Amino acid sequence: MLESHVYELMIPRSRTSPAYLLAILFVLALGAAPRATATPGAHIVSLAPGAGRSVEVTVYSPAMRRDIPLQVLRPADTDTPAPTLYLLNGAGGGEDAATWSAQTDVSEFFAREHVNVVIPREGAFSYYTDWQQVDAGLAAKLGNNGRNMWATFLTEELPPVLDSAFGTTGRNAIAGISMAATSVLDLTIRAPHLYSAAAAYSGCAMTSDLLGQAFVTLVVSLGGGDAENMWGPTGGPGWREHDPYLQAHRLPDIPMYIASGTGLAGRYDSADDPRLDGNQRMLLNQLLIGGGIEAAADYCTRALQRRTQELGRTDIVYDLRPSGTHSWGYWQDDLHRSWPLLAGALTS
């Protein structure tokens, strides 16, 4: 789904100590405590210190035949193995200013948590899924080769590479917003044994009905892509296969946190909000476009709630807020509220 506004925040980069640089090189050299065998050819291309305790990592994906940049937030104690949270951005895929790092307190929040947080910096308009065809439109828009095999990369290629490089516990969780919230549910179905928990914020699980098809097609087209290159002919078996509502019986038996708002104005929908900084045009965009998008997400989320209740699921927490648009203030709150569920599953 779409993020209702985009604007840039500059994050200061702190000086990095020689000890920290040495530690990074040491981890790369030893590949401490590997947990799995990586897909042949998947490997770290580069690793460099970022702001604070973050590390900028580039991993080669054989499936996509290109290098994929990632940000990894490391725990304070890097001597003790930590679990991993894969945190996905929305429609912009981390390739614009609408990112977890730029729009939320993610770095500060996880600074006190013993976890590795992995945030891909690519994947715009891709639904983080495996595409059936190379897409020339996305290639031209995003400056890549148009090969999108994100599910293979995220579930098969990347985890063992990072487990080996950072000496993780091998336990994983996944969370995402908007477009990627849909992806999160689909990825747990594809890799039911990979994740210990999942969280989806303001996504739509219904991708194969007429409304879902129209919205997915719109999101992909904003990147210049053709959604039929993704899942085949619109309304066909590929679309039904990747519809978490239709495939709800295949959702793994893991704790999940699924949240949405009604689209009505809430606490972050005023010009006084720091992310809006008095910008009336941005506020109007958030209220009208962001309100409409969130109302649609809420419709999907309530339908999924009914479906999973019919299936007897009791380990899915639905946070159906009485207000709130499709915007970052609410997603930061969602992340904070869902973290105890995710953390409990990662450490149990």
Strand content: 15-25%
> How would you classify the helix and strand content by structural class?
alpha/beta
The percent of residues in helical segments reads: 25-40%
Low-confidence stretches: 4-36
DSSP, total strands:
9
| Strand neighbour order, sheet with most strands | 1-2-3-5-4-6-7-8-9
| General shape | globular
Q: N-to-C SSE series?
A: HEEEEHHEHHEHEHHHEHEH
Main sheet record = 9 strands, mixed
| N- and C-termini, Cα separation | 32 Å
Task: Give the helix tally.
Answer: 11
* Mean of residue pLDDT values: 90
**How big is the Rg?**
19 Å
Explain how this protein is built.
This protein is α/β, with parallel strands linked by helices. The protein contains 11 helices and 9 strands. Strands 1-2-3-5-4-6-7-8-9 form a 9-stranded mixed beta sheet, sandwiched between helices. Helix 6 links the parallel strand 6 and strand 7 (195-201). The longest helix is centred in the C-terminal third of the chain and has 31 residues, at 280-310. The radius of gyration is 19 Å and the shape is globular. One of its GO terms (molecular function) is hydrolase activity. InterPro entries: AB_hydrolase_fold, Esterase-like, Mycobacterial_A85_antigen. Keywords: Hydrolase. This is Alpha/beta hydrolase family protein.
